[in-house]
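Holo model, zinc ion. Inputs:
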Amino acid sequence: MTTTEAIRHLGSLYAFANAQEVKAVEMAIEALKRSQPTRKHKPIIRNAIKCVSCDDVIESIHRHDAKKCKCGRVGVDGGLDYLGRIGNERDFIDMGEWA
Ligand SMILES: [Zn+2]
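Output:
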């Protein structure tokens, strides 16, 4: 599992987690980021997806800005910190952008 996949997976847990679990997920994400200091990440400038079921385009503005589409099938989270994706990858078109 790559760091990006791990962070994406952890981000998807937000929708179902309580405050304590969210804190644990955040700490895990921070640890993952620190564990690969030499890896070059392009800064995220847009964190958005389009739901293929309802055509809703949803965008996460900040780290804890979790949003779901109109039909509730998919969601985004993480703002410009990480690309949190909720739902199945085949159910959305990724519109994330990097600098
Ligand atoms: Zn939808």
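The chain is about 30% helix and 25% strand. The first strand starts at residue 44 and ends at 46.
Archived with the compound record.
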